[in-house]
């Protein structure tokens, strides 16, 4: 029992310093990516079609932690799209019920781990597919493609451009 409880103490680690340059590039990437998605959504598509809550968390990863395995393009795109598809399946099977929400999140984690595409915002995309309301449900099997796939592609292109403008950054680490 002592060993089990001891694991919960955590470890003391030296946190990496984030200077103003990194913070600026993270801000610029997140602003540019989200502004482009919002502009496209408002200008070409229905107002809410490309705007999904999980994109906020994706922005943190690809712009503020571009070296993270969870931020790499295959994880962002396939982890999000596969998870969204799992969520759509759970909604179509069980409706917008608590059990469908729990299954969507847990099954999306399982699928991402088995496909080596873990992207934490993917689980949010799965949850949104179930709990997102009538606008999301009306998209059906299109939801993993539009808005999830298209939105992720837009953010990835912006991340590749912005992160590589900074001399001290490199993105992606791998495809």
Explain briefly what this protein structure is:
By secondary structure, the chain is an all-alpha fold. It has helices at residues 2-6, 20-43, 54-64, 73-94, 98-115, 120-131, 134-139, 144-165.
Please explain how this structure is put together:
The chain is mainly alpha-helical. The chain has one domain (21-165). The protein has eight helices and no strands. It has helices spanning 2-6, 20-43, 54-64, 73-94, 98-115, 120-131, 134-139, 144-165. The model has no long low-confidence stretch (mean pLDDT 93). Keywords: Membrane, Transmembrane, Transmembrane helix. InterPro entries: HPP, TM_HPP.
Question: Average pLDDT across residues?
Answer: 93
β-strand amount: under 5%
Q: What can be said about the biggest beta sheet?
A: none
CA radius of gyration: 18 Å
Termini separation comes to 42 Å
Class by alpha and beta content: mainly alpha
Number of helices: 8
Spans of at least 5 consecutive residues whose pLDDT stays below 50 are none
Q: What coarse outline follows from CA principal-axis ratios?
A: flat
Percentage of residues in helical conformation: 55-70%
Overall structural domain count: 1
What is the H/E order? HHHHHHHH
Pfam family, one: TM_HPP
Domain HPP transmembrane region: 18-172
Transmembrane segments: 24-42, 77-94, 139-166
Keywords: Membrane, Transmembrane, Transmembrane helix
């Amino acid at each position: 029992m002592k060993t089990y409880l001891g694991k919960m103490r955590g470890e003391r680690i030296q946190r990496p310093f984030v200077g103003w340059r990194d913070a600026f590039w993270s801000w610029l990437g997140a602003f540019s990516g989200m502004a482009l998605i919002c502009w496209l959504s408002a200008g070409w598509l229905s107002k809410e079609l490309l705007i999904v809550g999980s994109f906020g968390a994706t922005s943190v990863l690809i712009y503020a932690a571009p070296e993270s395995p969870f931020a790499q393009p295959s994880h962002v795109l396939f982890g999000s799209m596969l998870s969204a598809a799992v969520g759509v399946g759970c909604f179509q099977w069980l409706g917008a019920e608590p059990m469908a929400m729990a299954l969507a999140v847990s099954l999306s984690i399982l699928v991402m781990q088995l496909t080596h595409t873990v992207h934490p915002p993917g689980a949010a995309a799965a949850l949104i597919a179930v709990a997102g309301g009538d606008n999301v449900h009306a998209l059906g099997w299109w939801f993993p493609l539009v808005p999830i796939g298209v939105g992720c592609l837009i953010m990835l292109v912006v991340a590749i451009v912005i992160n590589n403008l900074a001399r001290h950054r490199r993105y992606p680490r791998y495809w």
